Amino acid sequence: MPSTVTPAGSSTIATNLPARLVAELQAVLGPRGWSMEQDVLAKHNREARNKFTGMAELVLYPANTGEVAQCARLCHEAGIALVPQGGNTGRCGGAVADPGQILINLARMDKILETDARDFTMTVQAGAILHHIQQAAEDHDLLFPLSLGAQGSCQIGGNIATNAGGLNVIRYGNTRDLVLGLEVVLADGTVWNGLSKLRKDNTGYDLRDMFIGAEGTLGIITACTLKLFPRPRHLATAWVALPGIEAALDLLALARRETGDAIAAFELMSQFAQDLCISHIQNCITPLETRAPWYAMIEITSSRPRDDLASVLEGVLERALEGGFILDGTIAQSEKQRANLWAIREGIPEAQTLEGGSIKHDVSVPVSAVPALIEQGIKQAQKRIPGIRPCPFGHVGDGNIHFNFSQPENMPKAEFLAHWEDLNRDIHDIVAGLGGSISAEHGIGRLKVDELVHYADPAKIKLLAAIKQALDPQNTLNPGKVINHK
Amino acid sequence: MPSTVTPAGSSTIATNLPARLVAELQAVLGPRGWSMEQDVLAKHNREARNKFTGMAELVLYPANTGEVAQCARLCHEAGIALVPQGGNTGRCGGAVADPGQILINLARMDKILETDARDFTMTVQAGAILHHIQQAAEDHDLLFPLSLGAQGSCQIGGNIATNAGGLNVIRYGNTRDLVLGLEVVLADGTVWNGLSKLRKDNTGYDLRDMFIGAEGTLGIITACTLKLFPRPRHLATAWVALPGIEAALDLLALARRETGDAIAAFELMSQFAQDLCISHIQNCITPLETRAPWYAMIEITSSRPRDDLASVLEGVLERALEGGFILDGTIAQSEKQRANLWAIREGIPEAQTLEGGSIKHDVSVPVSAVPALIEQGIKQAQKRIPGIRPCPFGHVGDGNIHFNFSQPENMPKAEFLAHWEDLNRDIHDIVAGLGGSISAEHGIGRLKVDELVHYADPAKIKLLAAIKQALDPQNTLNPGKVINHK
User: Fold this and answer.
1) Same domain for A85 and A186?
2) Least crowded by CB within 10 Å, which of A469, B44, B332, B354?
3) Which PANTHER family does the record match to this protein (chains A, B) (predicted)?
């Protein structure tokens, strides 16, 4: 039933949404609680990598959990789908609405509700920006360790809905490991209050972890209680040259033991990736003269009042040299030197963009299978596209390599990028053969729904469908994401 | 259809199980794979605390996952319930069979399939004994940190099915946090192969955590991949006298920060609990002359090659003295002194038994609410039973207090124990008011099914039922545990 509605302060807009539903939602949310303006919608309908374009004609901005619940109930009754959206920084089209679907954005629900320095917990609304949470923890001399590129704009609700990874996973785990409790609005508008601070609770099935990583298809996360940690007071950062990729694993195992599991980051990159960054990104300086096929950055941290981490890290490098795991290594002697190391690691994606086209993968394998992944993947890529320049780097301690490839030097960018899906299939086949995952960090969203069905154990797909059917039988919560239901 | 079957090496036994099903199961499993002998069944039908008596007439001992799957399929087709059982050390009747139900015990599936020192993982069959897993990790100079009283006989499958807690949770988390992957046989005999070693995997809903803690009501865990950690090379252990229970929380927060989160155990006990143990358990020596209402034991560990943990812990105690969080403290100077401290902590339950009747609770609250729980709980208990002697102790860092009470000195034991349910209700009411859990470590089993319904958010109960219905619509997997279905 197409309708014409007149939003406050806006011109008349035609929409295919049921007029009664739109009016009811507007009444619940008040004039600040929704928008149908084209420029506002354009921002929400744009997807980070421009792979998808949303078609929402209405975006809702609830002010509290009760309003989210009422929106869900009304949409459920009308049979209209709700698509939850956080900071809209995802990479897989998980927050993109089809025509006739309504976006619900939690930006107004951004409050930090409580920080408890004795519980080491913080309770926040789902729309809180990750960076604000990090800062609020720091204000209590505590650490919220989730750290990723989009932290200035992504919302914690989206981080939880996608079980975001990032840089500190080796020490503190994925987002899943940082959440104690959740409040969730279910498909029919029921509120599940699981906003628990408990460290131990064995009262029935683990609902919390069912909603974490479900990408808004089972419920809308409205608030969460997060784990905090002592804030590091010391750190030490090294850059090492590796004789090969197997050596990276030996070094990692050695460093885990000898630092007392104090590794905050363990980042691997190929010589090509390092050099590309140094040549493209201003002020980046080669950390080591020694030429090697692989380099790694290790950072260790400690919250002890006195802790000579430089000595600890020196000890690791000495043993690694003795064991033949590294060819050379250096420890940052100043914050400036440390910043240079991080600038290299973090500059790789930008350097790749400056170098031309890139084909990327978000994959993981068991840590011990990283060498096989790299070796087989490069071989296959070179077979498919002679001259292709592999640019692997990333979180080797999590088995999570950003297995990127830069275009051959003399190939037009468009011609190279036309291989995207074929090369993805090649790499995903290798990943699957190694017991790996085709989505390590970014989720399934809309992008990988078919890919998941292609690779997953059929028993798993049946279980996913059974859970979706149990929690959202009308399929009104973010339909078409994670799993194609009905 | 009652039947008479003749098990190998046993006399003829009448059973109410369908004869055809029994014959089919026997054919699948072979002569070593089942028993109907009374003395064998008696062992499996006995429950740790004698609160429940199982009535199984048949116990199955499958040799591999394929056999488990066939058993599940046959029982599913016949509409006969399967009750999974591990080491049968649970406290809540979770592995107890009703008449007409069949026990399935995984004792024969006890192999350690693989240990990978570079992945820091171990893959084992679900029937592996926890202590054997700990030892196998040690053989690789690694640690599997799950540690609890029953470790000599409990099976890892049962630990996972109940999300067991124990002593090291403050550092390494609950069993849930120690599992990377699972293999599970579903109600209809389908095998879900989720035996992953991945540290990052965002491909759909979190099936792993749904099965963990589900107490065998959603599937039968047949194998798992576990996380291992560097084995500690150093430790330091302190005993401190506390002016009050609030001080324990200040000390805990201080120690988390100043040890660099190296706390392996932080155990609180009342003066009564300490003294009871020292008076009843042979060779236990008073660690501190200072009399105080509360004592705590702190143990910190490190895998660094050199780490002066005694100095680290001394620093913590100095700052705690300055802050007024402790009255006195001592650090164990020898393994003998350390053993004495652990003997006191671990001797409390036995000392309570020697002292007479005890009423116990397995509860948790937010760490910051522990003082309120203790204060309100003691007041209420003394009101109900004048002269009752509170004996609280346990994992304060997890908010998990073993809130035990010893009988008044001059009350007959039976008269005291008759108050069990009333006192449970009192304490559980207080726990619920503080946002706590009525089952911190032991699960729901059969014991707390009604209690869970009484205290839980109705939305939660509906979700649990929806999940059970989705995964086990015929209710043939451990029916009547966790949730009463149909």
Assistant:
1) no
2) B354
3) BLL6224 PROTEIN, D-2-HYDROXYGLUTARATE DEHYDROGENASE, MITOCHONDRIAL
